[in-house]
Amino acid sequence: MKKLIAATAVAALMTAPALAQDDGIPVGIILGFTGPLESIMPNMGNAAELAFTEASESGQLLGGRTIEAIRADSTCIDAAAATAAAERLITSDEVVALMGPDCSGVTTAVVNNVSVPNGVPTVSPSATSPALSTIEDQGLFFRTAPSDARQGQVIAELLDERGVDEVAVTYTNNDYGKGLADSFASAFEALGGSVLISAAHEDGRADYSAEVGALSASGADMLAVFGYADGGGRGIVQASLDTGAFDQFVFGDGMFGESIIEAIGSELDGRVIGAVPGTDNDGAQAFADMTSGTSVDSTGTYAGESYDAAALIVLAMQAAGDATRAGIAEQMMNVANAPGEQIGPGEIGRALEIIAGGGDVDYVGATGIELIGPGEAAGSYRIFEIDNGEIVTLGFR
Amino acid sequence: MESFLNAFVVLSNFVLIPGLAYGAQLALGALGVTLVYAVLRFSNFAHGDLMAFGTMATILGTWWLQSMGVGFGPLPTALLVLPLGILAAVLLVLGTDRVVYRFYRRRRAAPVVFVIVSVGVMFIYNALVRFFIGVEDRRFEDGERFIIRPNEFEALTGLSEGLALRTSQLITVVVTLVAVVALFWFLQRTRTGKAMRAFSDNEDLALLSGIDPKRVVLITWALAATLATLAGVLYGLDKSFRPFNYFQLLLPIFAAAIVGGIGKPFGAVIGGFVVAFSEVGLTYAYRRVLGHVLPDEWMPSGLAQLLSTDYKFAVSFIILVLVLLLRPTGILRGRVI
Average of pLDDT values for A91-95? Predict the structure, then answer.
């Protein structure tokens, strides 16, 4: 043990000067690169890194400094693994802020166990549980994705307009799924609809026919799936189609993704509607233009939110005048909201220049971001359906 | 009459057919466990991961064939590669026996030592599978997935309820039937099978009458690996392949072997179906079935579900505990563990 401590100390001494010379400001990107949402995470990570690169290359960040993005794996579902990964980023890599985590359960764990005790600002691009609105975050937690309380409302209104009055609900058994299912149920019942059954499912099971059997026993014709496209949600939809239990589905944002179309195929055509955070403002188009030809797919789930989360971290850093944890947390709301010059995607360099010159910015970004209340996006949703093996946008609300 | 038919169709669609397929898969798994227990006298905890290994080999072969553009018509390509998968699993267990189990057999180690050793082997298989194919969920079913789809069934019969019969479910039942008949014929009628049973009944007496123990051990392992691969591939075709789920299958498989009477091949088959139908039957919500047969005023307001589907795994655990408490020998008077 003594030897180990000595060796660690020596190693630390040897690496410390190297770190000190490095001009890069370490920022963590903690996303579920493995786990039930692994298919969308690389794109989200790339989108965040795009914003960091843009800031670094502008030469305007804190007098020409650069951002060094360090990736870590949140696993999306394993709170202990996510906590350990965040701990490593904060204590060993000494990051000044975290972009992430992604899923609501691990985000809650990381905020409670790592971010708050260490005073690290944490900006999640995709954690949407309503419970995170009231978390004891001491002003350190932000999210560029809206709370599911809003998503539940949007989906309930969508179904109501289509004349659906009875629905069965299944949700992934975690904070995200439960939160969304509850907010949907209360919104849908307020509109006069009824939720005949609301049952949880576990991710990673081989077989969902028993779950589907129980759901179909309720007698509903439409199934609302608040799960994951690469996890149990896919299994539920597949088993429903196989047994003929349901042929109409409504998807929450976790079910949005090309991977579910690849996995299930043409049977989904014309049977699915759903909602996913997104906007039709100029930002989305500008973001699409700037990402064409890069490794980022601007229409990917939470790609815009990830870019925006990273951009906000950079702008807050500039506004604070120094890359400190407390400074970033303090300035986050100021750079995200009015007053100030409106900043779209691809204009990070200009924003940094304005801030350096003493001006104010109002970051709008790719998703029309506006941080409300406890530091979360107000929320605009893209309504989609699946037709001919493609995701078709119906509108925004 | 039609309402009863409808009720029966719903029940078949959600309980009888899935239960039959799942039971057949468990029966094959439990047969392997029971054979190893009968002849080698220990509970092989590595059986679930052996299933995963054989299935993995089959999947890799399937991908290879698919990349060459070879298919098996309406049947899954995996069936073509199955002999290869079985061979890989047999080689793996024989290798394991050579380097691990033989060492303990020579020392005449206690059965509990073998059990712990098999746990170690389980972790190694576990890692091997993850190393080669990863941890993700994989579906490798191709060809024509359905024999009859729910909407086709409705159109054909004019009933209001649909029935789905998938190719993989029929294949599972047919393959299990063939495998079980062949195994029983082998155990009852062939010289080697009789030698195995004699060895299982009384090892010393069998040795005295000139039975070659090495041969018996070798055949037992080969049979166990074959059954494990069959069970694994059929389960994967019917549901999906994910290494962790195969590890979890250990519980229902052991429950099946013990319920039937461990060491008794026929008991393993019975046990497989008992466990499968208990799992599916207890967690199914019967509301829709009752809706067809009961008059409206008798309809239950709830889902008529005995246990939430969350407790699916608990069912096999409860069965295991109950059998060990009430009838430790199992249905067919096997050995007491």
Answer: 94
Task: Name the amino acid, one letter, at A368.
Answer: G
| B291:A263 CB<8 A | no
ipTM exceeds 0.90: no
| Residues A192, A166: Cα–Cα separation, whole Å | 10
From the list B280, B288, B308, which residue is nearest A217 (CB)? Answer: B288
Identify the DSSP state of A101: -
- Which tokens is B14 given? 């959600």
**Check whether domain B2-326 has CATH 1.10.3470, yes or no:** yes
| B69 Cβ contact list (under 8 Å, min separation 6) | none
Classified as helix, coil or strand, A320 is helix
Structure tokens at B85: 């998968």
The first and second tokens of residue B174, run together, are 């047919």
Report the pLDDT value the prediction gives residue A22, as an integer from 0 to 100: 54
pLDDT above 50 (res B173): yes
Closest CB to B164 among A230, A235, A243: A243
**From A117-126, A385-394, B165-174, the region with the lowest mean pLDDT:** A385-394
Using 50, 70 and 90 to split pLDDT, how confident is the model at A210?
A: confident
CA A6, CA A11: separation in Å to the nearest integer? 9
Which is it for strands A381-387 and A390-396: parallel, antiparallel or unpaired?
antiparallel
Q: Where do we find the tokens 């196989």?
A: A242
Q: Which residues is A171 bridged to in the sheet?
A: A200, A226
Give contacts of B9 with chain A, Cβ < 8 Å. Answer: none
Residue A7 has pLDDT above 60, yes or no: no
Q: How many domains does chain A have?
A: 2
**Are residues A225 and A341 both part of a single domain?**
no
Query: Residue A299: which CATH number?
Result: 3.40.50.2300
Average pLDDT over residues B123-132: 94
Based on the fold, state whether residues A155 and A142 are members of the same structural domain: no
